[in-house]
Amino acid sequence: MTVFGDYSRYYDLLYRDKDYIGESQFIHQLIQSHAPHSQDILELGCGTGHHAALLVQKGYKLHGIDISQEMLDYANARRLQLNAEVASNLQFTKGDIRQVRLNQKFDVVISLFHVISYQTTNADLEAAFATAKAHLKPKGIFIFDVWYGPAVLNDLPTVRVKHLEDKNIQVTRIAEPTIYPNDNLVDVNYHVFIKDKINGMIDELNETHNMRYLFIPELKIMLGNFHFSIIKQNEWLTDNDLNLKTWGACFIVQ
After folding, report:
1. From CA 119, how far away is CA 146, in angstroms rounded?
2. pTM reported for the whole predicted model
3. 1 CB burial (10 A radius; 0-12, 13-18, 19+)
4. Of 44, 95, 104, 220, whose CB count within 10 A is highest?
5. Residue 214 and residue 79: Cα distance in Å, rounded?
6. For 191-234, what is each residue's pLDDT tens digit?
7. Could you give the domains of the chain?
8. CB 119 within 8 Å of CB 128
């Protein structure tokens, strides 16, 4: 089972306050600004398909890739909730973004919610960038977001606690970070407690998510190995320049 195996059961509840609508609109605007005739999107690390379902409703065809079958089960269930015409433009495939090859080219490749920061070694990053390059049409664009190194080191990660519930369960998630500054890595240790509101039973889940924070010079080198150039860099969800408080950085490369 992948790191997102058990976690996938509570993923949408834990992130129900995430602005998927605003984020999908942000991606749509970037596409319209930098590749306005785009029709096909490949999403690397699509998770439960929330961004994907919103983007196909804007008229795109989208193919989502994820390594977690559990996540894809939720994504396919979401797809079935769309009307038939829209759903026909959305498909999901199980695969490792470092290795998958679909024998198909796309106008746009996206990788959201720090999927690229989950590629913790240079080899992993280069493999993910190679996948993006292999699937892009000429003049296509690749959009991704990462943890921005200068901000992570300036505003160090701290323990965070999140409480959420729906009609069936109560969830408490404790995130305890351990930073490894010589490796540009943060281990986020998740302790999740799930209480069944009907029978009072409590389940416990422990997972560690290894995250890499990145710097522009290293990104330029690695992207350059695949003849990518950064054409825009800004704060995630805004047009603001990157700064020491910008944990979420968005890059458009071509």
Report:
1. 10
2. 0.93
3. exposed
4. 44
5. 33
6. 989 888 889 999 888 989 999 999 999 999 999 999 999 999 99
7. 8-149+213-253 (3.40.50.150), 151-211 (2.20.130.10)
8. yes
